[in-house]
Amino acid sequence: QVQLVESGGGLVQPGGSLRLSCAASRIIVSNYAMGWYRQTPGKQRELVALVTSGGTTNYADSVKGRFTISRDNAKNTVYLQMNSLKPEDTAVYYCNAQQWFVNYWGQGTQVTVSS
Q1: N- or C-end of the chain: fewer Cβ atoms within 10 A?
Q2: What is the DSSP letter of 106?
Q3: Largest distance between two CA atoms of the chain
Q4: Which residues pair with 40 in a beta bridge?
């Protein structure tokens, strides 16, 4: 079965950095639009960053200039580098793979930004 396994979440102080990883099995990430989403209790899941199969990237306004999505095709892994973290970035972060009408989701990883 398809698996998206996330890692790298944790507790970090404001202004700090984290790198999230999404390791994919049974899909080739270069053939999918790969995205990072985040969700807090009572809120809709929001798109944070996206990289298309063609390599173009898009970011939510709230993270532009601070977050970077990247793809390592050799490792079949997608990353989200998060710098200058703010308490507002606290959320569960989910990895997503999309191709046409098919969507796959990771289990989510908690990111907490607090002093």
Answers
A1: N
A2: -
A3: 42
A4: none
pLDDT in tens, 29-73: 999 999 999 999 989 999 999 999 999 999 999 999 999 999 999
Q: Classify the C-alpha dihedral 51-52-56-59 as positive or negative.
A: negative
Question: In the sheet that 3-7 helps form, which strands lie side by side, from edge to edge?
Answer: 3-7, 18-25, 77-82, 67-72
Q: How far is 34 from 55, CA to CA, in rounded Å?
A: 10
pLDDT at 4 (0 to 100)? 98
Amino acid letter, residue 72: D
pLDDT for the residue numbered 42 = 86
Burial class (CB in 10 A: 0-12, 13-18, 19+), 5: middle
Contact 100, 44 (CB under 8 A): no
Q: What is the dihedral of CA 111, 109, 20, 68, to 10 degrees?
A: -70
The overall average pLDDT reported for the chain is 97
Two tokens at 7? 């890692």
CB 34 within 8 A of CB 104: no
